[in-house]
Fold each of these.
Amino acid sequence: METIHQEFQVAYRYPVYFTEGVFESSNPVLVSTICADDDAENSGPHKLLCVLDEGVCQSRPELPQQVEAYCRAHPDLTLVRPPMMVPGGESVKNSSDYVELVQEAISEFGLCRHSYIVVAGGGALLDMVGYAAATAHRGVRLIRLPTTVLAQNDSGVGVKNSINAFGKKNFLGTFVPPHAVINDFDFLHSLSDRDWRSGMAEAVKVALIKDAAFFEFLEQHAKALANREPAPMRKLIHRCAELHLKHIGTAGDPFEKGSSRPLDFGHWSAHKLEQITQFRLRHGEAVAIGIALDTTYSRLTGMLPEADWRRTLDLLEALGFALYVPELDGPLSRCDPDSLLHGLTEFREHLGGRMTVMLLAAIGRGVETHYLEDEIIRNCIAELASAATAAGRRAV
Amino acid sequence: METIHQEFQVAYRYPVYFTEGVFESSNPVLVSTICADDDAENSGPHKLLCVLDEGVCQSRPELPQQVEAYCRAHPDLTLVRPPMMVPGGESVKNSSDYVELVQEAISEFGLCRHSYIVVAGGGALLDMVGYAAATAHRGVRLIRLPTTVLAQNDSGVGVKNSINAFGKKNFLGTFVPPHAVINDFDFLHSLSDRDWRSGMAEAVKVALIKDAAFFEFLEQHAKALANREPAPMRKLIHRCAELHLKHIGTAGDPFEKGSSRPLDFGHWSAHKLEQITQFRLRHGEAVAIGIALDTTYSRLTGMLPEADWRRTLDLLEALGFALYVPELDGPLSRCDPDSLLHGLTEFREHLGGRMTVMLLAAIGRGVETHYLEDEIIRNCIAELASAATAAGRRAV
């Protein structure tokens, strides 16, 4: 009997807003996003479950009340229960407990596919709640309010969610775009210096592989960025988010079916470094080291001019990143799960297909390779170690 | 700062094959599907995890060995472990235990997004394994080998997966198309008469809402179908799968973002009937009653000519379906979770948006409505009860 060939396309659209004071009653962004499609036949009130990062609420204890007041002020929104408070940070992804907590609330309060989950927090919390929202009823609408630099310019604007499982980072998850993202700059004021800085690593990353002018902007404002001046940080976040979204939207593989993954430049080692430092390193701190490592690799193999390599390491250091941790000097074997090199094995296994790693040909121009040599990686680590010794600087 | 509007499309393609003896070494369908995209840079051997329905293996005890022999005969396939045996039937969806078992095997044997999970079983097992495959690494390739009429002509060829949670059917799941579907007619020989019959309800459903000629075909061959003649059953499965796929591919909402759900004709009550009969009714048996109910509703409200109503009930009975169970006569309240009418509440909540139910204007022509009257539903039940008494026939 004749084979049936099924073929269709699914269109995705979502806005990324930039605002301040998202939960001030006079701020229209959230309510107008939720009511955007209302018409005579489909209208509010819309059910809304809110999940907040406990860490964020520690520095902004008025936040839960603000959320409740906002929903009271807008009769088209029905907050189904007081905001759920959930810890932030990687630990929230380490079991399915919190995912089930969110799914249970979705069930208990009768949310449907046209209801809304509004989550405010760092990247890890957004990942976890995103996974719960994507799987309950096969997908409840998710509005992300990223509260860190990293989440506002990178993970929080993308199409992925996840939790960790079987000791593997992001082992479980889905590709499901959010309904909307609202970047509220106010959330950044209460970040620690470490978290403020950490998120800038992804901006350096995307500038290096895609946008030399943006890299120059970062160089020019490195000191101001390190000193927490708001204006250049807003620019950094907007441009980084824009480049990230542009890649997802136009590079032809938004749900990563192929083997190419340019946005993961510097990440094969970063994911592993987070793990072998028992998450003492923040994701962005690990990415900064990963960028330094792969940029050094690019130089040592003759792909990247020395001047570009120097500028890259200088920028990372000017932003305040330390580019060496003792764990880099552990065993180097692709088969040893405790080894940095095992990161390459896990990277390929998680992404699938042919091993593909991004390197640099110039600032603003990434190139992909399918082979990395262990011996050269060893030399890269030695370079980073001696540079750190020379500078008297080591990472946390 | 300027809002960024993200917008992209994702293209999906998958084949649905019809074959016999899929695991005979000489049958090329499975191996050629897996190796279809091989080229100089991406080639085998391809890792493959196989999950088999224990019930299927009871009637075909040689199946696991056949799978192993098939993979040995094709060096491009690496079966990572002997086939996993998992119970079939709805119970496999009632906790996350089996999902975790499959995910753990994916982790343990190092499968990646380009590896394959091959699952042979009924609709419930396909749903469960599909959910595990869709979430591990954010999606491992899934090849479905549906072994029942219902799975071959309906659920197994579609884009959904799920498990039950919080007492709600299909509460957790995703929309993720399979890599391929292989309908092996041989699996149907060992079905019980109940399972053979049960799957035909979805064919009646899709014929009623979309294809009068197919309905006539079913009428003409009702006796042969009930007597398990293979030729008309092959035709039934092919046409039903084709209509199902055509709807998903061309009706503009493959991942069910809106409120319209024509393929769920007869299903608001069917899902609930399965539950309130403690799954004594097979899905298809419940769908047959659900079709009878909504067809009767269409007639009682003057939408559907009496002759079309009569033909529909006659066809369902000729195929061997009983159209009444005592549970239909339970309490009727939309707020009582034990009531059939609560099925309407759950149906809307699961699908989201405005309550939308398909009714019939004619054989081959469904129309949607947004209101059902409880009193008329009561009358429909009374009609089915008296028809059953008159015929001396009751469902299991």
Amino acid sequence: MKQRTDNYEKGLELLNKLHGGQAGEQLVNNLKDVCPDFVDMTVEWAMQGIMARPGLDLLTREFLLIASCTTLGHAVPQLKAHIDAALKLGATKQQVVEVILQMTFYAGGAAVSNALAYTKEVFQTHAQ
Amino acid sequence: MKQRTDNYEKGLELLNKLHGGQAGEQLVNNLKDVCPDFVDMTVEWAMQGIMARPGLDLLTREFLLIASCTTLGHAVPQLKAHIDAALKLGATKQQVVEVILQMTFYAGGAAVSNALAYTKEVFQTHAQ
Amino acid sequence: MKQRTDNYEKGLELLNKLHGGQAGEQLVNNLKDVCPDFVDMTVEWAMQGIMARPGLDLLTREFLLIASCTTLGHAVPQLKAHIDAALKLGATKQQVVEVILQMTFYAGGAAVSNALAYTKEVFQTHAQ
Amino acid sequence: MKQRTDNYEKGLELLNKLHGGQAGEQLVNNLKDVCPDFVDMTVEWAMQGIMARPGLDLLTREFLLIASCTTLGHAVPQLKAHIDAALKLGATKQQVVEVILQMTFYAGGAAVSNALAYTKEVFQTHAQ
Amino acid sequence: MKQRTDNYEKGLELLNKLHGGQAGEQLVNNLKDVCPDFVDMTVEWAMQGIMARPGLDLLTREFLLIASCTTLGHAVPQLKAHIDAALKLGATKQQVVEVILQMTFYAGGAAVSNALAYTKEVFQTHAQ
Amino acid sequence: MKQRTDNYEKGLELLNKLHGGQAGEQLVNNLKDVCPDFVDMTVEWAMQGIMARPGLDLLTREFLLIASCTTLGHAVPQLKAHIDAALKLGATKQQVVEVILQMTFYAGGAAVSNALAYTKEVFQTHAQ
């Protein structure tokens, strides 16, 4: 995995587009000395292998990841990173709130309540 | 909750639009004698209270529910019902598959693999 | 663990009291040749070690286990066994339904909907 | 949902009775500017729609929510709020501990261990 | 992903070694018409990208997957496939049972109880 | 459970061997005044009842617990305690990382990413 492939370069470009700011860099920095291969997996698999696929636009994909992180409950840094990415891609704050609210009958109200509290933190870093 | 409100009538209309076929009716029939109030909660809260809100279109909401059910892993009848509803609302089979595939790095490959197997079952009941 | 202790005898008595019928025996029979030690753990730890503790009555404990199984989503044979045990201990069907309904805002509506469907199956084996 | 209904007023009264102190207010304040509708859903659905139903007393309902939050593992602010509410309703500390301990064989020992650590934090704010 | 890479060929060889029998083929067949790309992801990422890495032997990796599937609770076809693969790699039935039993205090006894019941089914297809 | 049995003494010895340092003591201290019986259950059941069983070596058992905690997502203090115990038992840092990486396709990449971040914290307390 060490020789940089074309997939890696394209995946990295997408990672920077979506998570170029604080949240994404923090994720990568946290992991690069404990397990640099996992950064590669994120870039090649999660970004270029899945996120970059045709068939759904990037913002819909970010909404789906917000839904999944809200449902998992414990994926807090990822939830914040994907809320941030959705806003960067042009989502309104109201749309992000609706995505999380939609989880109420599935992930449960406790998961939604906590996700909304994290959402508030991310919103404070975005003017809009 | 027993007097039928306007919210109830509108919610029921939406339930029939989304789940009018086999899957939705089955859910309601399964529950109506063990707990009719839960059918009311589904109609008034999940349908009229959440699903009918402005801010996101119905198909995006169905995609989010497919993402959540895939992540939960055990919400099998609901996963099938929402795949069915997404197709009824005009989603292509490829879009539904992409929604589930997007969960690979969050819900994990086992959850995605099982969700795709259930997807196949629902697809067989839709011509397209 | 092989010499039968006093704890084991008392735990087995409690297991028979709570799950003496079909559901409990089935659980034990399923496991006794693949892992008899797990049956012992169930008897000594789950029954005599936890269930038999003072401080809460048996029916409240069964309600708590129904709540936990509903929340887990995948603990289906256990959910059925504890609904059956609650009814044996004198719970009304309405109380069991209320316990599960109480989970709606925490375990989510999908988990509650599925738990109610399993509840219906157990209710059909109880006259009341 | 914006016109205050009778359900809303009764639900708010119950919310204040159960969570009138620090934990409950904090939950509401966290959410009221990011999503005021979710506060309404909590008041009208979780409080007046479920918690206020007949068939189980309020303390049993709080115990069930403690069981569910312990099982979820990630619902930490909610776990603390419901432990606080149970004590306000007259539960002894020993009863709360028993409720959590009862989860050992279902939610697992790690979830119970963490829940007991949070319990300790809440207990320190109650004299008894 | 459609041109077959060297990674794909090596990953497929490993998939056949581990899951050559009924369980593995069934998984692949279930998915190949609904989403052939997911089969490729399984081969290239899960097999060649992770399973084939140095640092842990294949049997330890299978034990870890059995642990994870037991903890997830809903990953039933995967649990069976990995129990089957562990036995093919030379694990004794007692070792597989110990792996699952080790989960009792983490995944909980209900998850362990169900996993042991599935284990029994797989054991019946292996002479030993 | 209050009279100290031979099982208790042996279990305590094992607890000290595995978690003698900061993480283990902290777990015990957190719980001993809120629920001393849970410390006993940990010592007698989790340690002497499961961990000390024959059939798998201690390090393999620690790896399985790391896998389970990574999959649960919310069992953070336990994840750290078991990474620490694995290193004490002679595991290399690379082995611990491989155990967590093996979870990518099952627990999902978000759970793995967070587990690796916690791993880094524990590694900083071990020279190697």
